[in-house]
Protein: Thiamine-monophosphate kinase
Organism: Maribacter algicola
Amino acid sequence: MLEDKNKERTSLEKLGEFGLIDHLTQNFTLNHSSTLKGVGDDAAVLDFKNKKTVLSTDLLVEGVHFDLSYMPLKHLGYKSVMVNLSDIYAMNAKATQITVSLAVSNRFPLEALEELYAGIHLACKTYNVDMIGGDTTSSKTGMLISVTAIGEAEEDKITYRSGAKENDLLVVSGDLGGAYMGLQVLEREKEVFKVNPNNQPDLEPYSYIVERQLKPEARKDIVELLEKLEVIPTSMIDISDGLSSEILHLCKSSKVGCALYENKIPLDPTVISTCEEFKMDGTMIALSGGEDYELLFTIDQADFPKIKGNPNLTVIGHMTDTSGGANLVTRAETLIPLKAQGWNSFQEE
Amino acid sequence: MLEDKNKERTSLEKLGEFGLIDHLTQNFTLNHSSTLKGVGDDAAVLDFKNKKTVLSTDLLVEGVHFDLSYMPLKHLGYKSVMVNLSDIYAMNAKATQITVSLAVSNRFPLEALEELYAGIHLACKTYNVDMIGGDTTSSKTGMLISVTAIGEAEEDKITYRSGAKENDLLVVSGDLGGAYMGLQVLEREKEVFKVNPNNQPDLEPYSYIVERQLKPEARKDIVELLEKLEVIPTSMIDISDGLSSEILHLCKSSKVGCALYENKIPLDPTVISTCEEFKMDGTMIALSGGEDYELLFTIDQADFPKIKGNPNLTVIGHMTDTSGGANLVTRAETLIPLKAQGWNSFQEE
């Protein structure tokens, strides 16, 4: 899914604001019966009938959340949608609609925005969500994308962060740390490129982790899997800021403690080998890395047989009473209190 | 409603992302039974039962949509909400919830964001909407606010842009051009201030139009009035970009033409006198000025007795068949085709 290096440049000024929205959204179709009216009026109109509506929103800022020097625009469009759908799935809900608002400076030609929207379109198609609105405007510098995702769920299936109970099992989907290590590789190649622009990087050995960073997938499949397995998690959150930070969110909201077992944390072999290469600790990366967009949830112990042996799910610990706090149980069986070392966008660089 | 010139400065870095959201949203209460869960989980949860959901989103960018040199932050927060609620009212719906996402650079201290949220809070309280979520992040430069407004309506009351019919009357609420002329006054004072920073501007004669620019009100009262009068407009839009551009939207969506009577366009005396002072034409300002956030709608002629004589509503024209196009009928009774001279944020400065 590489960016189309189209050399044509159409200035945004020529199209104007209304022309731009019409142009960029012309290929989007509406597929949900809950979408009564999408783009083209003052507001979208939705009908969720007897289901509950869930809604989440995220801002992605150039230079803070993404770097266009290695992030192809099509991937960026795709990832912007994933970040939001991930929040909907973390409620154990089904994503149905999104809105996309975009602020861009005049330095971007129309063709660049078409690439961005191609990624958004692919995400909508793959995940079966309707694009129902948004806003397009200029910015003085850089690009900013604001996505709002809307979903639906039966009330008794909605999973909050607050339902975990003592002795519940802590489960994670997929593996962790890949997105962060992919970013390390991309940052390194960017530095090499600055020194020697003719250098052709060989990213092949890192393809899994680079894809985890550039084209993450939200875990719609896990929500579907849980439904099939007839498991309703007692609490759930998506991993956007790192495992440690997300566990602390669940513990705080649910008023429980946690024992996380270091030797259970799922790491892909590429993450392990790249950590060795960068002299980084895999556990630390999983705890603090962020952007993996896996689902972290707790289940009643009685549900363990239903998920046991499933290759998509790993039990990594269990919830405890609140007095002991949230701890990592290391391979040496020592306890280390978990800290929210997740990403803080307000830190000075 | 002047900005509190608090001299304390707390850096955003100290609070971090989660602390910031908790801090800024602590005073917001939830008042709608349709809000099952607001801020504090991966997504908000809403329940609209048998009503339809309407949803709209807008981006406001520093240097494009607002200038902090004369826009107090509290007013900016208030206005950001108004811009969105206006879209919901333009559907003849009731606004119930908002989400607010914010990108700010480190140059803003916490106290500045508190001012901004004080304005958002006042708007939520005054218009009875629940704040249910959002995102807060840093930006490399300047401030950007993304607001999504959610509302509800009975299906048969929802008013689209597309329902206007030949011979329907064209009606506008309030008066036009004030926000644009207020901006002219503020821009002039800014230039004076640059030359002589000790100059104390006397804005008193312009207070109505300056307030139209800095603290616009969305016309919730008009939606309530229409309900009381038992009038369901055949089409409706809010005036954000200027009367001309909005009439063209209604005509295009409804596939009709329009005759707009210059001598019917409602202008406040302050707008007329300030236009004279700036040697500008009041009609042109109403047609192209923008940001008035009044409602523009069409009604069946049979409903005319219901609105006749209401001081909040002015009949300014009628819809025609599509062949004649959309025209301004001047005081001299000549026809001038309307053009979308509304604001284009992509124009080079």
